[in-house]
Amino acid sequence: MKKIIFLMLAAALFIGCKSSESRQGAEQFGNEPPCEHEYSQADIDRELNRLAMITDRADYTDDASFANFREVNTKGIRPGILYRSSHPAVPGARADIAARQADRARVFTIVNILDTRREITLYAANVPWYNTYINRDAITALFAGKEFFEPNFAGKLGEGLRFMIHRRGPYLIHCDYGTDATGFVVALLEALMGASPDEIIADYMQSYVNYYGFSEDEERYKIISQIPHEYLCKMNEGRVVNAANVSHAAELYLQNVVHLSPATITELKQMLASR
Q1: Nearest CA to 177 among 100, 229, 114?
Q2: Is 20 inside any structural domain?
Q3: Which of 191, 185, 192 is nearest to 207 (CA)?
Q4: CATH value at residue 103
């Protein structure tokens, strides 16, 4: 009898512990403190208005920096699967170099966040390399704008992500300069795959290093770096984002704003995941 009572007590304790663990797991998201920002929107706008782009290739150390072309290699993303850049098809030296860099990376699928289908067709008429993507249905033109938390952008982004899922990589994401819309979409994917906020912000800010000569110790770097920080917070419904909840924050945005199903989000993660 004592043995039976002992076993019943042990089972109750085990169930209680598991229930407690489950509650703790559920509570680790959603109870983060609200985000606080060091700089005002006026501070950010002031620095954005002061930007002066470095336009001469001779002032850059390499072609990739000039074209703002780079591999996305943050935590969780498979090497050689995802790239970002400035526009590779508009007239100009920067686009020519971006196209060469993409070709060298063997990019198979392109997501153009900026243009309409008509616009990319016009560009492709003068850029045979870009035209090959149209001919094999390996490019999508989203014309999504920059209101990242509004229905129009979210709907277009959903189209682009589904397009990627049903095409093979490597993938190139671009807008005009590869900073704003590209920066947001890449930050979202990096967050989804578990990159730390510091990694995400550093990659976002690399575009400002490339184009404007920013360095991390400058005040303007710190001010502008609040932009991706605010994006992450907004994905997490205004709460602090850290290494533990960053992927959850991205999933919240994809589910509640972009309206992707859990199954589609899983497919997206599998597409990008390290092997």
Answers
A1: 114
A2: no
A3: 185
A4: 3.90.190.10
| Bridge pairing between strands 139-141 and 171-174 | unpaired
- H-state helical runs in the chain: 2-27, 41-49, 63-66, 93-104, 117-126, 128-135, 151-165, 181-192, 197-212, 219-224, 226-235, 246-256, 262-272
Which residue shows structure tokens 């606080």?
36
Q: Give yes or no for residue 78 having a pLDDT over 50.
A: yes
- Measured between alpha carbons, how far apart are the two ends of the chain, in Å? 53
85 Ramachandran zone, left/alpha/beta (phi>0; psi -120 to 50) = beta
Report the C-alpha gap between 250 and 114 in whole angstroms: 22
* 3 part of a folded domain: no
Question: Strand, coil or helix: what is 54?
Answer: coil
Structural domain boundaries enclosing 162:
32-272
Strand order across the 171-174 sheet: 70-71, 82-85, 171-174, 109-112, 139-141
Please compute, for residue 172, the number of CA atoms within 13 A of its CA located in the half-sphere on the CB side.
31
In a domain, 13, yes or no: no
**8 Cβ neighbours under 8 A, 6+ residues apart:** none
Burial 78-97 (b: 16+ CB within 10 A, else e): beebbbbbbbbbbeeebbbb
* 95, amino acid identity: A
Distance CA 33, CA 75 (A): 25
Number of domains comprising the chain: 1
Q: Report pLDDT digits (tens) over 120-172.
A: 999 999 899 999 999 999 999 999 999 999 999 999 999 999 999 999 999 99
Task: Say how many CA atoms lie within 13 Å of 162 toward its Cβ.
Answer: 15
